[in-house]
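<tokenise_the_fold>
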Amino acid sequence: MQLEIRPDPAEVGRARRWARSRIAGSGIASDEPLAETLVLLVSELVTNAVLHTGSPAVLRLSLPGATGEDAATVRLEVADASTRAPVPRCAGDDATNGRGLALVDGLADRWGWSAEGAGKRIWCELDRCAPPPAPAATPATCGTRTPATAAGAATPCAAPVCTAPACATAYEQPARTGPAFDGLAYEAV
């Protein structure tokens, strides 16, 4: 599915609303961290296209289960008519912009760009864990702690957690470094 974007800052809000409406019908809950992260990535990439290219763009969103694609990966692409390469910047403490690609790098599992015709395509992907299996029956009194054991000590409940590297949230990802960031480490947000 795709949305045509005009080179107008008002298009950023329209792109976010469009993405939310597509997410709502995809099986991804609107309050799921993946949905929130995806909307933020849409905002960042569309903002970059609108502000830095001055040309129309196309936002494409590939959601789990759509057209037989990998059900665990969400892909977002923004294609524009500018040949200027996206360049991550090191924004100063007082800067009000310049952090978009650092956010994309910190939030997406993968991202990149490629020349396409007379322009380019910037893309990012988010991996989605399958929902964890339902836990075995637990006592009704189990909230944040299990009932006391025979020895009298209470232990924390074991909630199923996805530990696959691809399923780390933005909060669990390591700091990013590299020549694109002039050797500075950007902590994940």
